[in-house]
Amino acid sequence: FFFSSRRRHTRQRSVSWARRCVQETVKNVFRKTGQDKKHVIFLLSEAELLDDNYLEDLSQMLTNADIPGLYTTEELRSIRDYIGESLRKEVQLSSLNAAAGQQQLSELQEETYIKFTKNISDHLHVMLCFSPVGSKFRNYCRDYPAILNATSCIWFLGWPENALMEVAKKFVKDSGIPEKQQEPIASIISYMHMSASETIAKMKDERKRIFYLTPTHYMDLMKSYAKIKEEKEKELELYKAKLINGLAKFKETEKKADVMSTETTIKKQKNMEQVKISGDFAQQLEAEYNKIAKQEAHIKARAAIRDKQKEEAETLLRAADEELARAEPKLEEAKKALEELKAGDLAEVRNYTTPPNEVKSVLEAVMVIVGKAPTWTSAKKAMTDAHFIKDIREYDVKKLSDSQLKDLESHTKKQDFKITKITSISYAAGNFAKWVLAIEDCAKALRSIEPKRKRRDLALDAIAKLDKELQELQEEKLKLAEKIGILSTQKKQAEDIK
Question: Residue 14 above 60 pLDDT?
Answer without folding.
Answer: no
